[in-house]
Write a structure and sequence with these properties.
This protein has about 500 residues and is α+β, with helices and mostly antiparallel strands. The chain has a single domain, classed as Cytochrome P450 (Cytochrome p450, Orthogonal Bundle). The chain contains 16 helices and eleven strands. Strand 9 and strand 10 form a beta hairpin. InterPro entries: Cyt_P450, Cyt_P450_CS, Cyt_P450_E_grp-I, Cyt_P450_E_grp-I_CYP2D-like, Cyt_P450_sf, Cytochrome_P450_fam2.
Length: about 500
């Protein structure tokens, strides 16, 4: 009985605190659905499709509103105008990284994606500088992608046009490209460590997009329970061991006058700042940054490729038109290159439409305001989490008529020329836009064109029976499992 009384008092205090907090911020934060004590608006949101719930709420509350994931308020920005105004026009104020507890627990605020403040600024600035300047040693980034694409072609030919799951092979190309940046070496596709590494990336992206993780992020105390968060933690620990092995190898062979790759550049910077107690160039930050680059550089691109092939299987007429353009511009006897893109408007439009349609990260990674901020007629306190609903931009029906339809025409003008769109925010926008956007754009164009230059995609079922609905739509949109045949042309 005493324990029951104590629990009742504690719960009452929590409820009172929540109600006081709600009344204290009322009139400052944008309006939104009335939250319940403790659980907030969780019961009003579809955990299997938060993005759809956000769209429904926007109809009632407009482009700027507040929802509570548990006891924490999140300001939602819906539609191009609101998102552009925040991320671009007020980029500095909205450049913070919001809380994402399942990842925060493993990165501890380190790295380039989930860090904040001076650590984020220094790490991002350094990372972008190295990525731009190092040029893969003696090879350009484009050369590296082209060579990996040819390795992919060789591996696909070994399938002998038999049904295969493309997941691992499509992940191998971007993983090896980023490996060359970080480690200055690539892995053979038969390497067991390499296969395991990609398996962990796939598992993490799928798990982080499940409804359970939506719940975990609202109530982090759920970490004491069994669940998919434990798979993410286990995979992260194993990936870190792999990264530490590579860092140790680099430390033993480091030549300060001749840096070979990202790790060398970072180790040299650590040495330069070893007497600076406030330095952000530490071993822990190096490891977290490598994990960020590996994760972002591998999984997002490989998932886009996997989803892209599924859409091309569903729409063979589009695949055939791309192949026709490849034949006209590139032919059969040379590798596709980035110079070809300007002469291949239809292929360029298809790549953009794949990214728009799959809506890979529907609600973006969480942002946060870095200071008390006046936004439109509202006041947003420093540190408040900001959810930028990218779906509302990529599926804007005025910019992209009939947005639910996969149609490359969304990026073509009346004359068949490629048409740019400010609404194409597949890489987000502003100061927190994807640092690897240029690399990802090159990979998507070169890999897809190389595949279609060498193979016709054959589905195992009638195209009209192919279901492209994501199996999970949380942080990311995870495509359904499928197999296909790569028929040499």
């Amino acid at each position: 009985m005493d324990l029951f009384i104590i629990l009742a008092i504690c719960l009452s205090c929590l409820i009172l605190l929540f109600l006081w907090n709600g009344s204290n911020t009322k009139g400052k934060l944008p309006p939104g659905p009335t939250p319940l004590p403790i659980v907030g608006n969780i019961l009003q949101l579809n955990s299997k499709n938060i993005s759809k719930s956000i769209s429904m709420l926007a109809k009632d509350y407009g482009p700027v509103f507040t929802v509570y994931f548990g006891m924490k308020p999140t300001v939602v920005l819906h539609g191009y105008e609101a998102i552009k105004e925040a991320l671009i026009d007020h980029g500095e104020e909205f450049s913070g990284r919001g809380s994402f507890p399942v990842i925060d627990r493993i990165t501890q605020g380190l790295g380039v994606i989930f860090s904040n403040g001076e650590r984020w600024k220094q790490t991002r600035r350094f990372s972008v500088m190295v990525l731009r300047n190092m040029g893969m040693g003696k090879k350009t980034v484009e050369d590296q992608i082209q060579e990996e694409a040819l390795c992919l072609v060789a591996a696909l030919k070994k399938t002998n046009a038999s049904p295969c799951d493309p997941t691992f092979l499509l992940g191998s190309v971007p993983c090896n490209v980023i490996s060359a940046v970080i480690f200055q070496n690539r892995f053979d596709y038969s390497d067991k460590k390499f296969q395991t590494l990609i398996k962990y990336f796939n598992e993490n992206f799928e798990n982080v997009s499940t409804p359970w993780i939506q719940l975990y992020n609202a109530f982090p105390f759920l970490r004491v329970l069994p669940g998919s968060h434990n798979v993410i933690f286990k995979n992260y620990a194993l990936q870190i061991n792999f990264i530490l092995e590579k860092v140790k190898e680099h430390q033993e062979s480091l030549d300060i006058s001749n840096p070979r790759d990202f790790i060398d550049y970072f180790l040299i910077q650590m040495e330069k700042e070893k007497h600076n107690k406030q330095s952000e160039f530490t071993m822990d930050n190096l490891v977290a940054t490598i994990w960020d680059m590996f994760s972002a550089g591998t999984e997002t691109t490989s998932t886009t490729l996997r989803y892209g092939l599924l859409l091309l299987l569903k729409h063979p007429e589009i695949s055939a038109k791309v192949q026709e353009e490849i034949d006209q511009v590139v032919g059969k006897n040379r590798r596709p290159c980035m110079q070809d893109r300007s002469r291949m408007p239809y292929t360029d439009a298809v790549v953009h439409e794949i990214q728009r349609y799959i809506n890979l990260v529907p609600t973006n990674l969480p942002h946060a305001v870095t200071q008390d901020t006046r936004f439109r007629e509202y006041f947003i306190p420093k540190g408040t989490t900001i959810l930028t609903h990218l779906s509302s931009v990529l599926y804007d029906d005025k910019e992209f008529p009939n947005p639910e339809k996969f149609d490359p025409g969304h990026f073509l003008d009346e004359s068949g020329n490629f048409k740019k769109s400010d609404y194409f925010m597949a890489f987000s926008a502003g100061k927190r836009a994807c640092a690897g956007e240029g690399l990802a754009r090159m990979e998507l164009f070169l890999i897809l064109t190389t595949i279609l230059q060498n193979f016709t995609l054959k589905p195992l079922v009638d195209p009209k029976d192919i279901d492209t609905t994501p199996v999970h739509r949380g942080l990311g949109s995870v495509p359904p499992f499928y197999e296909l045949c790569f028929i040499p042309v």
